[in-house]
Amino acid sequence: MSPTPEPVVSELIELLSLERLEDNLFRGQSRDIGTKYVFGGQVLGQALSAAQATVDPAGGRRAHSLHAYFLRAGDIDAPIVYDVDRTRDGGSFSVRRVTAIQHGKVIFFCAASFQAPEPGVEHQLSMPEVPRPEDIEPAPAVPAEVMATLPPKVQRWMSRRGPFEFRHVYPRDELNPPKRPPFQQVWFRLSEPVGDSPELHRALLAYASDFQLLGTANYPHGISYYQPNVQMASLDHALWFHRPFRADDWLLYAIDSPSAQNARGLARGQIFDRSGKLVASTAQEGLIRVVPDAQTALLVPAKE
């Protein structure tokens, strides 16, 4: 019998377990994790859950890639409807297109591809040499006197106990960020064990893959999402699944940002399990605007 997850983990699993309205139509709820709008990882995970629900598990086909675009900011207080198009079921591959709709408007769409297992050539890049997660101390809590000086949005984000635990190989003070090269490595795992469903672990990884990624593009500029004059929003997201993994065991997220320009930043990630196997890869481009002051940030939407 699988262990009973803690409430914060069970809430995430419930969030990714969509209500089926029709054969290809699903509804998901949202959760406020301290962001102004719906967290992009939530939409990624829910869209993948919807797509997976339309692929016959008996055929052994598993998601191997997902390519997504974020079109509008999501409303935390409203449900999201996911419409799945069964684009193709071929001899080895299946493709699904998922459209996320809120208040009658498309806020997101993606294509997900599924493949039946088959043998073939195999290689991978090596995992970076970093300390093991057990050798890295958890991040200390923000002192109460510092927390009291932060905007309510930032307080909610920094005081939350999320379903994933993160341990940064080279921690950075996000409230007073130094300038650094655009690289980081982060160990992460779901904070409690869950069941063995590969579909669940893929949806959980899709959710978690949106953390840390775009922020790496800020490193050379000494800026942070927490600063009131910085606007950030995901524009697109790609995710490839390479090998089996568990989201409730430690995974290393090795991220770099090769470019930032024209108010956009690009970040790439490789996700390794603790034995060094490359289990997934990611890429994301996002909007990064530094506006004159906090008041301007409130008046100018991150996405028009």
UniProtKB/TrEMBL annotation:
Entry EC no(s): 3.1.2.20
Gene3D superfamilies: Acyl-CoA thioesterase, double hotdog domain
Taxonomic superkingdom: Bacteria
UniProt keyword annotations, A-Z: Hydrolase, Lipid metabolism
Gene Ontology annotations of biological process type: acyl-CoA metabolic process; fatty acid catabolic process
Record-annotated Acyl-CoA thioesterase 2 C-terminal domain positions: 183-287
Chemical reaction(s) catalysed: a fatty acyl-CoA + H2O = a fatty acid + CoA + H(+)
Acyl-CoA thioesterase-like N-terminal HotDog domain segment(s): 37-115
One Pfam family, short name: Acyl_CoA_thio
GO cellular component: cytosol
GO terms for MF: fatty acyl-CoA hydrolase activity
Quaternary assembly: Homotetramer.
Family of this protein: Belongs to the C/M/P thioester hydrolase family.
Stated name of the protein: Acyl-CoA thioesterase 2
UniProt organism field: Pseudoxanthomonas wuyuanensis
